Amino acid sequence: MGHWTLDDINWDSFEPDKVDTELLKLVKAACMIEHHSSAYGQYLCAIFNEEPGVCEDALTWSEEEVQHGKALRRYAELADPNFDFDDAFARFTKGHPIDISAEQSIRGSLCGEMVARCAVEVGTSSYYSALRDSIDEPVLREICRNIAADEFRHFKLFYKYAKHFQETERLSRWARFKIALGRFLETGDDELSFAYYCGSGDTKPYVRKQANTDCMARTLPLYRFEHVQLGVGMSLKSAGIKPQGILGKTITRMLWIGFRLYARHLQRAASYA
Ligand SMILES: [Fe+2]
Ligand SMILES: [Fe+2]
């Protein structure tokens, strides 16, 4: 049972004049990635089939993620009646399949799989927080607020499991940090940009680098320091590094500077610049 449903959203307060068409492209991309989570739920069940309780939690988690997709889909269709979700999602899943028949984690260990899941929830919680704080349209803001709260809970769930499996697997901090960073970069590199391309209705062939640049050039400027600080802090925690320690603070400050420089570079390189 989720913490909210689509019926809890005050759809009547929708203000079409406040729809930002560029942010709407990000909403369409997020909507497809969220819908894809049911496949990840099955993947996690297969990987953790010998671990009591994990499969149940993974299925509840994926139901909540799919609900995020449904809320965002309904919003996207409200804001853009020409949005053809079925067509866009079919293109997305064809080009970005998930191996649900896997029997072993592609991260190499159970703890590593949970650290990778933590990285995803770090990304989504900070993403929806940044989106929530950037939009004027009240319905989308309400949806993003609800989703961001769910994503923080999901992080806590996977963090709990990461600590549990770490007790037996004993991965080094460096190994966990590499997994978290690697998973983070994967999302930024392909999944989100391909979803952005499919949702934008672009009929030109998919050029990964350009789609990635365009998508990230829209996304990264939404983040303020507190969003990055929160996301980096959660990532460090899942890798076993204290965010408030000297090392944690130094990493956060350096990443924020790098983040700002990279965002400016992308804005200059975007096809619409
Ligand atoms: Fe989600
Ligand atoms: Fe989540």
What secondary-structure arrangement, pairings included, does this model have?
Blueprint: H1 21-35, H2 37-47, H3 54-79, H4 85-95, H5 110-132, H6 138-169, H7 173-200, H8 208-219, H9 225-238, H10 246-269
Helix pairs in contact: 1-3, 1-7, 2-3, 3-6, 4-7, 5-6, 5-7, 5-9, 7-8, 8-10, 9-10
The chain binds fe (ii) ion (2 copies).
The site of one fe (ii) ion (FE2) has 6 residues, from helix 3 and helix 6.
What's the quick description here?
By secondary structure, this protein is mainly α.
Kindly estimate the percentage of residues that lie in beta strands according to DSSP.
Answer: under 5%
Give me the count of strands.
0
CATH architecture level-2 label: Orthogonal Bundle
CATH H-level homologous superfamily name: Ribonucleotide Reductase, subunit A
CATH class: Mainly Alpha
Q: What value does the Rg take, in angstroms? A: 18 Å
What compounds sit in this structure?
fe (ii) ion
Q: Under CATH, the topology is which?
A: Ribonucleotide Reductase, subunit A
